[in-house]
Amino acid sequence: MATPPPRLIPLLEQFDFAHRRLRDRLTGPHMDSGNGTDVPVDPLTDEEHLWEPVPGCWSVRRHGDGPGPRATHLDGAGEWGRDAAPFPHPSPAPLTTLAWRLSHLAEMLTLRADHTAGSRRLTRADYVSSGDAAGAVAAFDAGATAWRDTLAGVDDAGLDTVGLCTFPHGSDPEEPFLDIVWWVNQELLHHGAEIALLRDLYRSRQG
User: Fold this and answer.
1) How far apart are CA 170 and CA 134, in angstroms?
2) Distances from the Cα of 135 to the Cαs of 27, 80, 103, 139, 156, in angstroms?
């Protein structure tokens, strides 16, 4: 395997840590507390995956049930889809469930990998969301692996290439690829933190 460009290495290390920490947070039996200490954690359940902390949440739902409050449609193929609405989005933004956030991350990683080193044809309409916890975690892990494999094939010149990624739901076609790598990392970090908070709230609710 080729050695990554030096300026990509810190972003790869950050991505790997964030991916591993979120995956472990979802699957258990332990996760890194951030200082190297293992903290016990239970695997995500189907009930928690779809838990709505407040009324009016956006979530992942069966297409046959239709979209949730203030959503106009469900993104994705298959039995399940993710609540969505065209721009401008509802304001204030609906609170989203753990299922919604995990589906969003998995879709983003999968599609960006495809639009960098794959067919460059996948859209949100093609993506299949999972209604169960195990399927959703597996999809996230697969998307993260696909994106990481894509990054391993990018050379130094590619990092400066505008439009190397043609992901159609962002500014990717107008941005140097290194900026997209940074953006994906911050998406994983901030949604990972949101998911961690939802897990804490769910556990506290159960006493």
Assistant:
1) 28
2) 12, 12, 10, 6, 35
DSSP-based three-state secondary structure for 92: coil
Residue 20: name the closest of 161, 104, 141 by CA. Answer: 141
Of the candidates 51, 43, 59, the residue with the CA atom closest to the CA atom of residue 101: 59
Contact 82, 63 (CB under 8 A): no
Residues 127 and 109: their CA atoms lie apart, in Å, by: 11
Q: Which two tokens stand for residue 179?
A: 């900026």
- What CA–CA distance (Å, rounded) separates 38 from 40? 7
User: Cα angle at 98 between 48 and 91, to 5 degrees?
Assistant: 130
- Per residue in 23-66, pLDDT (tens digit) is 999 999 998 887 888 989 999 999 999 999 999 999 999 999 99
pTM over 0.85: yes
59 φ, ψ to 5°? -150, -165
| Cβ atoms 80, 67 nearer than 8 A | no
φ/ψ of residue 173, rounded to 5: -65, -15
Q: Are 67 and 61 in contact (CB under 8 A)?
A: yes
Residue ranges of domains in the chain: 14-205
